[in-house]
Design a protein that fits this description.
With about 700 residues, this protein is α+β, with helices and mostly antiparallel strands. Helices cover about 25% and strands about 20% of the residues. It has 15 helices and 26 strands.
Length: about 700
């Protein structure tokens, strides 16, 4: 660790050589610890490094993260990559540039102050010039960064522009890029067979009959899998195992039809999240209490999770699309009682998951199966059913908001209670491994219950529960469940989705009760000029409030949030059509994400988040009965189809000179709330639980 002022992830990873390396062929190899999951971070980080070094971006080579060579930047989550990794890389680039300029000046015999840099060529007075790459052999980066070493910040060449994505060409032209494409010499394939019922015990395996000669059955306690020479042979063997395995016991799941009641009644740990005490003498004329809920939501990654593993003696090497390779390494080391340096995890891109899906779990599956084939790499790819039944889900949530109002309908006090499982079961953060198979092994570990991260680092189920509005009095309480029959962990936006959905519907209801425009009501309760700016921008861009309540099944709704109350500002206007089902026709969005590295990248993140939130709001719910998860296919777990995707129009509000606030998770909460408010505007029904289906609307009418 160095002093407290080094920026971003550099504080924990101060050595310059951890971040970049110059090579004689005229390229710069950049090694961030953050991973690409489809959010375009490689493009943003390459741009930051190129600008700081003053080289063309084409010289930058982004090195895939690995635990043996990359800085440990924890997990890629929370819309923090530019803030953490970008700030670190900018500082490293500036410091290395300064070192190179001083080296070049010494070689030319001139003053560094008289030098300038053009695409890695240091030019001095007259015609003197030296290339960075000619100096590379004399430059040692095996030293810590310093606060004083960074030179002046070169003028950025490309920040804020529409930068072409580095990862997109491979994806468009179908080149091998994903972990699913990775083939190692001598590769074998594996499948895992799990019970329908959570926590069931493998009682016995009935006669399996003839299997392919290359197939190996692997069992460790209740962990059951198969390894073979081809995917076809292991698929056949896994199907045979599934039919002949006899499971006993397991835990009951809650009654899906009484999910909200179960959330509110289950054993829990109650904490006071925030308290503001206002004047005690204001009279209360009316109290309004409203309840909201959301179901368990699946990550539903388009590509099923996949991993490769190989044992060489006591050394395990894994290839994974985990969002936290060092954290995965920690849990693998604990599971196999190995030192961390006996485990190597290499990141390979997978389809975006935006949260803790099964990427880490399948890595342990692959490691367990590879242990039965020493020296041979084993590739495990989950099936769609594996993915939808066994990956961690976004936690179901119940929210209750109580508001005391005075005789004029003004807020006197505000209460917000959340009941939910924790939103983090990521590996590497506890003494007990959280990987799925770790609880299935004979010498395994108890299944831990999900936790919430502290609110100071964004929180979990309490994320965005504290209102942003200037109310005189509030009390915010979180109830974390201490039982977890349905496995939960991080899903994009965590608790912000349900909390903003609830808060912004109540704001809409309070405004309408006063016969006050919902936009004006919000503006009246906000002081932050950047919050006011995004609301005014979305109103101007959408033509608010034209078209409201036209009586033809169309409606328009507005919502606002600042992600984590410390991140990006986002306001959304939704236009919906309510017929047999709700159809979102258009989303107009205004955001302030602070510094913009790539305008196109920000648009991608905001649009993608809004479309995913539309799917969650209208379609998605994990289905289950007492015996287990029943939504195990796209037919039983429907998501938004391409034909149902709304038009999305985004305005980025410029705030020059400000720090990056992240863009990946800003639009989910306000999109959901804006849709719900638009549904009320269209048909006069307040739907307080997602998904807003025809049945949910009919239930709300009752």
């Amino acid at each position: 660790m160095t002093g407290p002022m080094l920026p971003g992830s550099l504080r924990a990873n101060p050595r310059l050589g951890q971040w970049l390396r110059l090579t004689p062929d005229g390229t710069v190899h950049v090694s961030p610890g953050k991973v690409e999951i489809g959010q375009g971070i490689l493009t943003a980080l390459a741009t930051i490094a190129a600008d700081a070094l003053e080289v063309e971006r084409g010289r930058i080579r982004m090195v895939p993260p690995s635990t043996v060579r990359s800085p440990d930047e924890g997990v890629t989550s929370g819309s923090l990559s530019v803030q953490d990794s970008g700030r670190a890389l900018r500082h490293v680039g500036r410091e290395v540039r300064q070192m190179l300029v001083e080296l070049a000046a010494a070689r030319m015999g001139v003053d560094p102050q008289d030098c300038r840099v053009e695409d890695g060529i240091v030019r001095g007075p007259g015609n003197g010039h030296v290339s960075y790459f000619d100096l590379a052999a004399d430059l040692s980066l095996d030293r810590p960064a310093t606060l004083e070493g960074a030179g002046p910040s070169p003028a950025p060449k490309s920040e804020g522009g529409d930068l072409p994505r580095l990862d997109v060409p491979d994806k468009v032209f179908g080149r091998a890029r994903f972990i699913h494409d990775l083939r190692l010499p001598g590769l074998r394939h594996g499948r895992v067979v799990r019970p329908t019922r959570t926590g069931a015990r493998l009682e016995r395996l009935d006669e399996l009959g003839d299997l392919s000669p290359d197939v190996v059955i692997v069992r460790d306690g209740n962990f059951l899998g198969v390894v073979g020479g081809s995917e076809e042979s292991v698929d056949r063997a896994a199907a045979r195992l599934k039919a002949r395995a006899v499971w006993e016991g397991g835990v009951d799941l809650p009654d899906e039809t009484e999910l909200e009641g179960w959330l509110r009644a289950a054993p829990c740990e109650t904490t006071l999240v925030d308290r503001r005490e206002g004047p005690a003498d204001r009279a209360v004329a009316q109290t309004l209490t409203r309840r909201f809920s959301r179901p368990f939501i699946a990550h539903a990654s388009i590509a099923p999770c996949c991993a490769l593993a190989r044992w060489e003696g006591d050394r395990l090497e894994v290839w994974s699309h985990s969002q936290g390779i060092f954290m995965l390494r920690a849990d693998l080391a604990r599971t196999f009682a190995r030192a961390p340096d006996q485990v190597v995890v290499n990141h390979v891109e997978g389809a975006g998951c935006y949260g803790h899906n099964g990427a880490d779990d399948v890595a342990l599956d692959a490691a367990l199966l590879a242990r039965a084939c020493p020296g041979e790499p084993v590739r495990v790819q989950w099936t769609r059913e594996d993915e939808l039944a066994n990956a961690p889900f976004g936690a179901a949530m119940a929210v209750e908001i109580g508001v005391d109002l005075d005789g004029d309908g003004e807020v006197v006090s505000w209460r917000h209670d959340v009941w939910s499982n924790g939103h983090s079961l990521r590996p590497g953060r506890a003494a007990t491994p959280t990987l799925l198979a770790a609880s299935e092994m004979a010498a395994g570990f108890p299944r831990p219950v999900s936790i919430n991260m502290p609110l100071s680092t964004g929180g979990g189920s309490d994320r965005n529960a504290v209102p942003l509005y200037d109310f005189p009095d509030w009390r915010i309480t979180n109830h974390r469940l201490l039982t977890m029959p349905v496995r939960t962990s991080a899903l994009r936006a965590l608790g912000a989705f349900a909390n903003v959905f609830a808060i912004e519907q109540v704001m809409d209801e309070l405004a309408r009760a006063r016969d006050e425009d919902p936009l004006a009501f919000r503006l009246r309760h906000l002081k932050d000029p950047r919050a006011l700016a995004v609301l005014e921008a979305v109103a101007r861009r959408s033509g608010w409030p034209s078209g409201q309540g036209a009586g033809d099944g169309t409606g328009r709704g507005l919502a606002y949030a600042r992600y984590k109350n410390t991140g990006a500002y986002c306001a959304v206007v939704a236009d919906v059509l309510c017929e047999e089902e709700v159809r979102v026709r258009r989303l107009t969005i205004a955001v302030d994400v602070g510094e913009v590295i790539s305008r196109d990248g920000v648009l991608n993140q905001i649009e993608g988040g809004a479309v995913q939130a539309t799917s969650w709001t209208l379609k998605e719910a994990v289905r289950f009965d007492r015996e287990g998860i029943t939504s195990r296919s796209w037919a039983t777990y429907p998501i938004l189809t391409f034909a149902e995707v709304p038009a999305v129009d985004v305005e980025i509000c410029a705030t020059p000179g400000t720090s990056s606030l992240g863009a990946g998770e800003a639009s989910q909460g306000p999109t959901a709330a804006a849709i719900a408010n638009a549904v009320f505007d269209a048909i006069g029904v307040r739907v307080r639980r997602t998904p807003i289906t025809r049945d949910a609307i009919l239930s709300a009418m009752e």
